[in-house]
Amino acid sequence: MIKKINLVLQDGSIYNGFSFGFEKEIIGEVVFNTSMTGYQEMLTDPSYRGQILIPTYPLIGNYGISKEDVESSEIQVQGFVVRQFCEKPSHNNSVMNLDQYLLENKIPGIYGLDTRSIVKQIRNAGVMMGAITSDNSLKNILNKINSIKHYDEENFVSQVSRKEIIYDKKNDFDIKISVLDLGVKNNILRLLKKRNCAVNIFPYDSKAEEILFEKPDGIVLSPGPGDPKNLDNLIPNIKKLIDSGTPILGICLGHQLIAKSFGLQTFKLPFGHRGGNQPVKDIKQNRVYVTSQNHGYAVSNKNIHSDLEITHTNMNDGTVSGLNHKKLPVFSIQYHSEASPGPKDSEYIFDEFVEKINQYKGK
């Protein structure tokens, strides 16, 4: 039976649609992604924790759901909003359709809306909280939205990070990597292991001493969800990791926390960078890469001291997309080098990281 439900935005905008997936009322920050494919990776990306996601591409689910195309152990989005979903997908690896996948993971979806109109509203007004609901009382829904913690106030990293250390049992490896799990995606781990790295994964609030006790050759600060300001308590730990002299790579949220550790500020973008078509200029190589990004916050380019250099910039809005420390083996990028927009254009970052590690191992 088709059930009518609504997407209600914090500004009072109402969009009528139909329910699919799991039926329940949810509230979250409403964001959009401009990628044409990769909906299963989006759904399972920990950086979407607490958010209601809208793909701008109108037909979603046409190649179904596989067991391989996942970036974490579960669906991470709060809710899913699509123009049209495909009930009968076609792909050799598909084991179910999108409706079944959402239902199995108890995630509500809504379809049949004018997603272009919603995206225009968000681009004009900025991201905002919203609800997927069957309640037709606008007053009730807005009261609910305004009565809970808003996205900026919540520490979502604590929800997606591992709760205990995961040790790599690999014996034959060239490099030992420690990953601070702020919401790490599976493909980051795959690409590190592909480069013959043993990868130990640490909970986000692990002490620097715990991480350094394992004598890692390199440390990765992973991507993850939410406002980096909610993680200010991690900055002293990250400073200790930096002071250890161990080569460090920060990706997305990890990039922002490294920047904060060096005294830079972060700020919220009007509607974020989410999609596989974000142009980033590598200043040193004088080359532009088309990158995949998923973040709502950025590093300010103000008050950058002499030991830091901006290595990459976003060509759309000029925001900082990469940093390098001139004296310490620390560098970071704002985009997802593992997310295959090119499809492999940005994986060179991992090669540079391994090269930097080998340089410091040789000293």
Describe this structure in words.
There is one protein chain. The chain has 363 residues and is an alpha/beta fold. The protein folds into two domains: 4-152, Glucose Oxidase, domain 1; 157-361, 3-Layer(aba) Sandwich (Rossmann fold), CATH 3.40.50.880. The chain is 23% helix and 31% strand. It has helices spanning 39-43, 98-104, 115-125, 138-147, 157-160, 186-194, 208-213, 235-243, 253-261, 348-361; strands at 4-9, 14-21, 26-33, 51-55, 59-60, 79-82, 84-85, 108-111, 128-133, 175-181, 197-203, 218-221, 248-251, 266-282, 287-299, 308-314, 320-325, 330-333. Strands 11-10-12-13-18-17-16-14-15 form a nine-stranded mixed sheet, with helices on both faces. A seven-stranded mixed barrel has the order 1-2-8-6-4-3-9. A two-stranded parallel ribbon has the order 5-7. Helix 8 (235-243) packs across helix 9. The model has no long low-confidence stretch (mean pLDDT 94).
- CATH class wording of the largest domain: Alpha Beta
Question: What is the helix tally?
Answer: 10
Label the structural class. alpha/beta
State the low-pLDDT regions, or none.
none
Helix fraction bin: 10-25%
Strand order within the widest beta sheet? 11-10-12-13-18-17-16-14-15
Rounded to the nearest angstrom, the distance between the terminal CA atoms is: 68 Å
CATH topology of the largest domain: Rossmann fold
Total strands: 18
